[in-house]
Design goal:
The complex is a heterodimer of chains A (327) and B (357). With 327 residues, chain A is of the alpha/beta class. The longest helix of chain A is centred in the C-terminal third of the chain and has 23 residues. Chain B is globular and about 60 Å long. The chains are: A alpha/beta (327), B alpha/beta (357).
């Protein structure tokens, strides 16, 4: 039913912190679990680390740039979907927190302060209702886009959905998660009917709640990642009615280049189709990666109108998410 | 009748059959006679010895002389079957051990028959059809076990000029066809356990690649018949499933996952997925990544499956026409692996791979 109406990502922006410590600097600061050399061999160079900015500040930076760049009037936004991968991303406060705590609530009422509402207020999005999309790890923004598309198809009075994602790790936490270098970052996008580009051809998601206890099932998660990723990608292509040969570019989440090389081997995709430019220099910005890469690939002139793009990501929970866009 | 390796997976089954024949006294050479005796038929004699120590077999000169003067039949089953032992260790058991048995055989004045057991996987990295006349290794080997067995065959073939030897190449034995019972765990069972635990993300190979597996009762029946009733000195025989009874790798993986779900319904809740079948270079990249990451659990898992799994990347079919011709008349043939595979998987699950639950 939703496929009957064309919906796409009309515009997108991102924001990453300027502070970009190298692997060596991170290692020296004790911010890596293992040796920097391993992460380097996996394709990482530096992380983006927020200093004074909170995740909500980063989201605001991305939204401001989006609205200014596109000349979008605040009252054009009918729905804000705020995606957060980390538990701390769905509340206003995440720092500073004593004793390295992820969540720091000084008062019970702090639990009821929502970033989406603050964005609505800050940008005067008075026509918009807001909702949060979370509990899907790095796949949260994919779900937000999926929900945006469904809403646009189901509710004629909703014209534009602002999807936002922002995550930052708590101060002082390790920047290495399961052999990946994690950065802070945010992205924002406008999802519209009849969008001029990035038409959503198909989306697909698989959730395996059996792996909800991510900390104690790390090895099983690594083992489950690859075969499930292949299945999800293949199922997404099937939904889209295309094959890998039809895909012009694979726009990745910035997990290690090595893991992408393995996954490309699994799905039988040439490495030349993978947009790799940001894995080393930006790292894995949790949920924003694919859209940072989509923006940069667009700005670099790599994408031609009509190109089919495969976006794939993976989030704790566990969630494997994939979409095919027509640029 | 002397049997080396008489307490192993195949040896124990063979000894039981030989004992039932009542044609000769069965003597089992073993490093641990007291422990071995407990699992062998009461009429079977055990002798403390070891093929790895040379032609003396670890026996006293008197015992060795007495044995050599009486032995008419030798079944040399003793072997180091672990796939990933250092080559020197594999050679010590499989090549030097066989030389020791051959040296002993030359001293047996009444020797009529000598069976040497090898593996069809002396084929190594060869792909395509591998016959009983073929000598493996032209394309290299996947593991030290294969290489040492191929080297053993060279020694055995040289000795065929002067000794009545038949060479029996076994496929991979996975358990009893009727009960699924496993008496000797090998790389297949370890791989099964890793699948069960959800620690095997990928396997090299293709959906259509044939996997040759046999039940121990077929292996024992076949070897017993070929040795006892249709002995052909100088012959080489494949005791394998071959084309008719093998299953494809894809079908075996499907059967494995189905068996896990059927025999442990709660396992389904763990959402463990079927491993992806990948090209060898992709698998090797994953293994290298695990090594670089230093993840001990996955490292052990990949190493455990590696020696066996690599063989899957070199698809081949074993042609056993010599064996089939001899066994067919006796009504002995390898059952289709998918007919009994589920029972083997169930046995592994229910016994927790042989460990106390």
């Amino acid at each position: 039913m939703t496929g009957a109406i064309d919906v796409g990502i009309d515009a997108l922006t991102y924001w990453v912190p300027e502070h970009a410590p190298t692997l060596a600097e991170l290692e020296q600061a004790g911010a890596l679990r293992g040796p920097a050399s391993t992460l380097a061999s996996f394709g990482f160079e530096r992380a983006r680390v927020a200093r004074s900015e909170s995740h909500v500040d980063m989201a605001a930076h991305a939204v401001r740039a989006l609205l200014e760049e596109t000349g979008t009037a605040p009252d054009e936004i009918d729905l804000v979907l705020y995606a957060g991968a980390l538990t701390s991303s769905t509340t206003m406060e995440c720092a500073p927190a004593p004793n390295g705590a992820v969540l720091h609530m000084r008062d019970l009422m702090d639990f009821f302060k929502y970033p989406a509402s603050r964005l609505q207020s800050e940008f005067d999005l008075t026509s918009a209702t807001v909702a949060g999309v979370d509990q899907q790890g790095c796949a949260a923004i994919f779900s937000a886009i999926r929900l945006a598309r469904a809403t646009l198809c189901a509710e004629p009075d909703v014209r534009t959905v602002l999807c936002v994602s922002a995550d930052r790790l708590p101060h002082g936490s390790s920047r290495e998660v399961v052999y990946n270098l994690v950065s802070d970052g945010a992205c924002a996008m406008l999802v519209r009917r009849g969008a001029a580009r990035n038409r959503i051809v198909a989306t697909h998601q698989v959730t395996k709640g059996a792996f909800w206890d991510s900390g104690s099932l790390e090895n099983e998660i690594i083992a489950a990642y690859f075969p499930t990723a292949r299945t999800v990608i293949e199922d997404t292509l099937r939904k889209a009615g295309v094959t890998l040969d039809d895909i012009a570019w694979v726009i990745p989440h910035n997990v290690s280049l090595r893991s992408w090389e393995i996954l490309l081997g699994l799905i039988g995709c040439p490495r030349e189709k993978l947009f790799t430019r940001n894995i080393g220099r930006i790292g894995h910005t949790i949920a924003a990666d694919n859209f940072i890469n989509l923006r940069d690939a667009t700005d670099a002139g790599l994408l031609r109108k009509g190109d089919l793009l495969l976006l794939f990501t993976f989030g704790y929970g566990l969630n494997w998410s994939c979409m095919v866009l027509e640029h | 009748m002397l049997v080396t390796g008489g307490t192993g997976t195949l040896g124990r089954e063979l000894v039981a059959r030989l004992d039932r024949d009542r044609r000769a006294t069965v003597v089992v050479l073993t490093r641990h006679p007291a422990a071995a005796a407990a699992g062998l038929p009461p009429d079977v004699r055990t002798l403390a010895g070891d093929v790895r120590v040379g032609g003396a077999l670890g026996l006293s000169p008197v015992t060795r002389h007495e044995l050599a003067s009486q032995v008419t039949d030798i079944l040399h089953c003793a072997a180091e079957t672990t796939f990933h032992r250092p080559l020197a260790e594999a050679r010590a058991a499989n090549v030097d051990g066989t030389r020791a048995v051959l040296d002993f055989a030359r001293d047996c004045a009444h020797l009529e028959r000598l069976a040497c057991f090898s593996t069809v996987y002396v084929a190594g990295r060869t792909t395509g059809c591998f016959t009983e006349e073929d000598i493996g290794g032209a394309d290299g080997f996947v593991n030290s076990y294969e290489q040492s067995k191929a080297e053993m065959e060279t020694v055995v073939r040289d000795a065929m000029a002067t000794l009545p030897i038949a060479l029996y190449r076994l496929s991979t034995i996975i358990g009893q066809s009727s009960t699924g019972a496993v008496t000797g765990f090998n790389a297949v069972h370890h791989a099964l356990r890793l699948l069960y635990q959800g620690l095997a993300p990928m396997v090299p190979g293709s959906e259509s690649a044939l996997v040759d597996l046999i039940p121990v009762d077929f292996a024992a029946d076949a070897a017993h018949h070929l040795f006892g009733h249709d002995f052909t000195p100088g012959g080489t025989f494949h005791l394998c499933s071959g084309l008719p009874s093998s299953a494809t790798l894809g079908a075996l993986l499907d059967a494995t996952m189905a068996a896990f779900e059927r025999h442990r319904p709660a396992w389904r809740k763990r959402s463990i997925v079927r491993p992806a079948l990948v090209k060898l270079e992709t698998y090797e990249l994953f293994v290298r990544s695990v090594e670089e990451a230093g993840n001990e659990v996955l490292l052990q898992a990949t190493r455990a499956v590696q020696a066996f799994a690599y063989q899957l990347a070199y698809p081949k079919v074993f042609d056993g026409r010599n064996a089939n011709a001899a066994l067919g008349a006796a009504g002995i043939q390898a059952p289709p692996v998918l007919d009994y595979y589920d029972r083997v998987v169930r046995w592994c699950i229910e016994t927790n791979w042989g460990a106390p639950t």
